[in-house]
Amino acid sequence: MSGRDGNAGDARSEGTLERNPELERAAEEAAEAVAGDAVRADIRELESELEETRDRLLRLQADFDNFRKRVLKEREEAHRFGHQNLVKDLLPTVDNLERALEHARTSRGADLEGFLQGVELVLREVLGVLEQYGVTEVEAEDRAFDPNVHEAVGQKEAPGRPPGTVVQVVQKGYQLRDRLLRPARVLVATPGEAGESSGAGSGESGDSSG
Questions:
Q1: d(Cα 165, Cα 141) in Å, to the nearest integer?
Q2: How many CB atoms lie within 10 A of CB 81?
Q3: pTM, rounded to two decimals
């Protein structure tokens, strides 16, 4: 019996290993070290990506600031010098007007016809420059009154013209292409004679009935 029991004990000892706390602790430390290295590597990668993203954002912000400053500068220059070409084209007209005035002073009014011709020339030059830049006169004379481009400043009897027709332009209007710069100030025909005729007729019929 004792021999068999001893053999069984030897077999159990051969089939199982006793726990080794030091070995287990070393294995745990090794696993923690491996995991720690992986975590630290991930952290370094994330920090690198974050730094790259931060640099890109800083460059993007700098580019946007430069773009904004450039737009503001161009807008300011357009506001200050946007009419440069128009003014440049009008300068010869100013020269001609000054020459016409100087001629009128030296002639002391003797050459009135020449002065008027000079002024008319200057006016044609001004209108020609304005036309180059898309400025045209608002058509008004003998046209139906249009509140979009006309401003009625009064009424006028005009026999033979339909009521609401522009019979006189007090001040010309101008438009820049499709945009109205200033409406034409006009006098509009009224049905004065027609109204008076109907009134006279009703008066005569009233008298006859009386």
A1: 8
A2: 10
A3: 0.54
The Cα 167–Cα 150 span in angstroms is 12
Give domain 135-210's CATH superfamily: Head domain of nucleotide exchange factor GrpE (2.30.22.10)
Rounded CA gap, 7 and 17, in Å? Answer: 17
* HEC sequence for 49-65: HHHHHHHHHHHHHHHHH
171 CB contacts (<8 Å, ≥6 apart)?
A: 182, 184, 185
Query: Is pLDDT of 196 > 70?
Result: no
Q: Going by DSSP bridges, is the β-strand pair 150-157/184-190 parallel, antiparallel, or unpaired?
A: parallel
In angstroms, the CA 121 to CA 130 distance is 14
In 138-173, the DSSP E strands lie at 150-157, 166-171
173: Cα within 13 Å, side-chain hemisphere:
23
Q: What 3-state DSSP class applies to 44? A: helix
Kindly state the percentage of the chain with pLDDT values over 90. 31
Instruction: State pLDDT tens for residues 102-141.
Output: 877 787 766 778 778 888 888 888 889 888 889 999 999 9
When pLDDT is cut at 50, 70 and 90, the band that residue 205 belongs to is very low
CA dist., res. 16 & res. 9, Å (int): 11
Query: What tokens appear for 1 in the block?
Result: 């019996």
